[in-house]
Amino acid sequence: MVFKKKKRWHCLPGGPISELDKKVMYWENRGKEVPTREMVRTPEQIEGIRLAGKLNTGCLDAVEAAIRPGMTTQDIDDICMKYCEDNHCHPSCLNFEGFPKSVCTSINEVVCHGIPKKEDVLKEGDIVNVDMTLDFNGYYGDASRMFIIGGKTTPEKEQLVRVAKECLEIGAEAAKPYCFVGDIGHAIQKHAEKYHYGVVRDLCGHGVGMAMHEEPDVVHYGHKGTGMLLVPGMTFTIEPMINMGTWEVFIDSEDPYGWEVISGDELPSAQWEHTFLMTETGVEVLSY
């Protein structure tokens, strides 16, 4: 028995076929992966996500104003919790599939999902990723930043942090209306590998806005023209995780929660993340 491929896109009933409909159906009819109509945000949803992104940015600003040598990653979690309480929003990571804290704090070789702890004291020269997602009135903002503790580190770590940020920026430049997720990943991988860095493949960016994690998966490696078609109105993160050595990772066996991801050779890792809105001309940053 032959099954026809299920169509993802549907036109709005009772109205003319729009230019958006025509462009999406063009690619769908050629076998490409396309979004659902529900993945294209309404103007009201976009404003809600934009406000959540603004609050999320404010939370990371509060961390940036306070982070310093001698503080603990638990102190960072306390800052984020207080910010959310003061601004009547919710830290989305808290209790998500057993994650015990409000924010992810990943130091040096921890790639992502580091759990804040009182015993994790930040030292001058550490590099730390702080990854925050919050929801406000049912809308979500998500972003992460790298911090060099004390402002100085080794030249090798400094370059890694810089190149990881360049990868995010280059990925955003590659994100054009009616491009494909693979266009973003290809641009990021090409830049990272100039420095012989590994681009993590087991974790990726994602749709965000009406939930913390939605379609599509936004991989940070690959080939042009692959993955889902990106159209105006979609909201998603780009968040390349760049390892100084291998792209491979493992879960820390000493983490009782099973969350902390470590680089495969335990060399340092860096990550930057923004939430983006695809527009008719390119992407707009909603949370950074």
From TrEMBL:
CDD domains of this UniProt entry? MetAP1 (cd01086)
Q: Which PANTHER family match?
A: METHIONINE AMINOPEPTIDASE, METHIONINE AMINOPEPTIDASE 1D, MITOCHONDRIAL
Q: What does this protein do?
A: Removes the N-terminal methionine from nascent proteins. The N-terminal methionine is often cleaved when the second residue in the primary sequence is small and uncharged (Met-Ala-, Cys, Gly, Pro, Ser, Thr, or Val). Requires deformylation of the N(alpha)-formylated initiator methionine before it can be hydrolyzed.
Task: Extract one GO molecular function annotation from the record.
Answer: metal ion binding
Tree of life domain: Bacteria
Cofactor: binding details: Binds 2 divalent metal cations per subunit. Has a high-affinity and a low affinity metal-binding site. The true nature of the physiological cofactor is under debate. The enzyme is active with cobalt, zinc, manganese or divalent iron ions. Most likely, methionine aminopeptidases function as mononuclear Fe(2+)-metalloproteases under physiological conditions, and the catalytically relevant metal-binding site has been assigned to the histidine-containing high-affinity site.
Species, as recorded: Prevotella dentalis (strain ATCC 49559 / DSM 3688 / JCM 13448 / NCTC 12043 / ES 2772) (Mitsuokella dentalis)
- Pfam families in the record: Peptidase_M24
Q: Which reaction does it catalyse?
A: Release of N-terminal amino acids, preferentially methionine, from peptides and arylamides
Which positions does UniProt annotate for substrate binding? Answer: H113, H213
Q: Which residues bind a divalent metal cation 1?
A: D131, D142, E273
**Would you identify the family this protein belongs to, as annotated?**
Belongs to the peptidase M24A family. Methionine aminopeptidase type 1 subfamily.
Q: What is the lineage of its organism?
A: Bacteria, Pseudomonadati, Bacteroidota, Bacteroidia, Bacteroidales
The protein's assembly and partners: Monomer.
Residues engaged in binding a divalent metal cation 2: D142, H206, E239, E273
In its UniProt entry, what is this protein called?
Methionine aminopeptidase
Domain named Peptidase M24 is located at: 47-280
Membrane-spanning residues: none
Q: Which cofactor does it need?
A: Co(2+); Zn(2+); Mn(2+); Fe(2+)
One of the GO biological process terms: proteolysis
The entry's keywords: Aminopeptidase, Hydrolase, Metal-binding, Protease
The EC number(s) this enzyme carries: 3.4.11.18
